[in-house]
Amino acid sequence: MEITKTPKQNEIKRDWIVLDAKGKVFGRLIAEVATILRGKHKPIYTPNFDCGDFVIIINAKEVQFNGFNKLEDKKYFTHSGYFGSTKSKTLAEMLEKQPEKLYRLAVRGMLPKTKLGRAMLKKLKVYTSDSHPHTAQVADSKKA
Question: Quaternary arrangement and interactors, per the entry (predicted)?
Fold first, then answer.
């Protein structure tokens, strides 16, 4: 009888994958990022532990959106917990001022809502330009 071998946390090799957001559709890019962070692209994928890779997104502001007037119509809300403290920002404002937060919110919705999902989200790095400080890690891994 064959037994399925589950790898241990120290046996998992994590790669650093660089994704260029220039000209890509936002939703499709985020779905790809969530798949890589969870590790579903690997043959050793197990849903109960983190086996995903690190993801670096460059050129975050130059992504495209499908949909008529989505940049003006879609809103993101924040609430501090006090009465009347609800604030909203449009997608265009978020993309201009806080693209890192926009990407994190989108990816967080596609990951598990547990400690495991929060650990996976820490492996996402978002930068608005071509340069990033992870060149040493990426040199050993593959580029996408």
Answer: Part of the 50S ribosomal subunit.
Burial tier of 108 (Cβ tally within 10 Å: 0-12, 13-18, 19+): middle
pLDDT tens for 63-119 read: 999 988 999 999 999 999 999 999 999 999 999 999 999 999 999 999 999 999 999
Query: CA torsion sign, 63 to 88 to 55 to 7?
Result: negative
Sequence-ordered list of residues with C-beta below 8 angstroms from that of 4, at least 6 positions apart, any chain: none
Give me the mean pLDDT over the 19-29 stretch. Answer: 96
Report the C-alpha dihedral over residues 25, 110, 39, 139, rounded to 10 degrees. Answer: 50
Of 142, 104, 98, nearest in space to 123 by CA = 104
Q: Does CATH number 3.90.1180.10 belong to domain 13-65+99-140?
A: yes
Q: Which long-range contacts (CB under 8 A, 24 or more apart) does 67-71 make?
A: 71/95
DSSP 6: P
Domain ranges within the chain, ordered by starting residue: 13-65+99-140
